[in-house]
Amino acid sequence: MTDTPLLHVDMDAFYASVALRERPDLVDEPVVVGGSGRGVVLAANYVARRYGIRSALPMARVRRLCPHVVVLPPDYDTFTTVSASVMETFREVTPLVEAMSLDEAFLDVRGSVRRLGPPEQIAEQLRSRIHDEQGITCSVGVAWSVSVAKVASRRAKPDGVVVVRPAEVTTFLHPLDVGELYGVGEKTRTLLHRASYVTVGDLAHTPVPTLQRAFGRHLGAHLHQLAWGTDRTELVPQAGPHEPERSMGADETFARDTADREAIVRELLRLSARVGGRMRAAGVVGRTVTLKVRFSDFTTITRSHTLPEATDVTVEVHRAVTRLYDALGLRRERLRLVGVRVEGLVPRTAVQRQLVLGEPEHGWEEADRAVDRATRRFGSAAVRPASLVRGRGRTNESEIFPGRLP
DNA sequence: TCTGGGGTCCTAGGACCC
DNA sequence: TCTGGGGTCCTAGGACCC
Length: 406
Known about the structure:
Its cofactor is Mg(2+). By secondary structure, the protein is of the alpha+beta class. Among the domains are: 170-228, DNA polymerase, domain 1 (Orthogonal Bundle), CATH 1.10.150.20; 247-400, Dna Ligase, domain 1 (2-Layer Sandwich). It has 17 helices and 13 strands. The strands form 3 sheets. It has a 5-stranded mixed β-sheet with strand order 5-6-1-7-8. Helix 11 (208-215) crosses helix 12 (217-228). The relative contact order is 0.09. The model is unreliable at 398-406 (pLDDT under 50). The structure holds a DNA duplex.
C-alpha cells in the first residue's frame, strides 16, 4: 500500500507504428493514420510530427501543413490483435493490469519485483520484449501514483523510460505547466492560467479550500492531489467477469450536413441497430436513451428520456430517439452529426422483463435475435433493416423487419 | 474539406419524498 | 408565516481521456 510501484506503458504513435510494419518503405516519410473526408488524425509518426501534425488534427489542415504526407487508413482488426498480444505480455509480468485503451495500460508491479527485479528493470524488459515481438516501440513511466506515472511516460516519449521516485515527485512535477497534469485539459488549463496558476508548484502551494472556492469542491481537491502526486495508487484490473459498461452509444458525422428528416431518422435507425446489437451481444439492457445532435456550427445538444423499463430492443431505442428528435421541432437547421446512447446499463439477467399478455411489443425481441444470428453468420453488411436497404422512401417501424411483424 | 468516435465522471437545478 | 433539510431520480451540459 505504501510501496506500490506503477508502470504506465504507452505505445509510441501506436496506429502509425503498426501500419508502418506493413510499409517499411515509408518509415522515413511523414505518415498519418486517419479517416478520409471529414476525419481527423488518429496517429502521426514522429516524422509527421516535425511538421506540427498531431492527433485529432483535421485532415484538411494536415494536408496544408505537409502536402506530401502519406495517409494510411486505420485497420482496427490488426490494431486489436496487436493490442491483445501486448496486454498478454503485460499480464505475464503482473495480473494487476488496468488497460486504458488499445495502446496503453497501468501495471502494478509490487508483486513482481522479487521475481523480475526493480521497476525500471521490468520496464526495460517489457520494452525490449514488445519491440522484438511486435516490432513497435513504447515508452514507460515508473512512479508511485497513477497520474505521476502517466506524466512520466509522456515525458519519456518516444522510446524511453522515466522513473519518478516518491522523493523526486516535487522536483519533477512542480516546474511543469499545469496543462501537463493528467486530467487537466485545454479548458481547465486556460481557467487556471487566467487565475494565475501557471506551474504545478503554484497549485501545490495553494490551500485546498482556496482551490475549492475557485474551481469547485471536487476539482479543487483533485488539483491539489495531482500537484503533490498523491492521487490514486490502486489499479482497477479488468480480470474475470468485469462489471458491465455504464453506457453504450454510437454516433456518426454525415458526409454532408443535412436537414432532411427522412435521412436523419434513417441514420438514427442504423445507429440504434448498432447500439442494440452491441447491448445484446454484451447481455445488457438500459433505461435511459439519449439523442445527440450536432449542428453545422458545431454546437451540440443532447436530449434524453428514461423508459419505464430497461430495453435492448433496436426498435424501442429507435422510437425513443426519434421522438426526442421530433420534439426538438427542427425545421431548416442542418445537422452535422447525430448520435444514440443508452445509459444506466445493467445485466439483462438482473431485470425481470414485464410480461404483458397480448402485448405486440415483444415480438421485436425475436426479430432482433434473428438479426443477431444472421449477423453472426453472414456479417453485419448482410443484415440490415429494410428501410436502410432502399435508398429512399418512408421510414416506419412496419418496414424495418418485413415479414416479421409481431 | 476545419474540427471522429468511443467512453467516463462531475455539476446543477428541479421534482419528489420523508 | 418568512419557509428546514437530506436523499434520490431525472435531465442537460461540459470537461476530459484515448
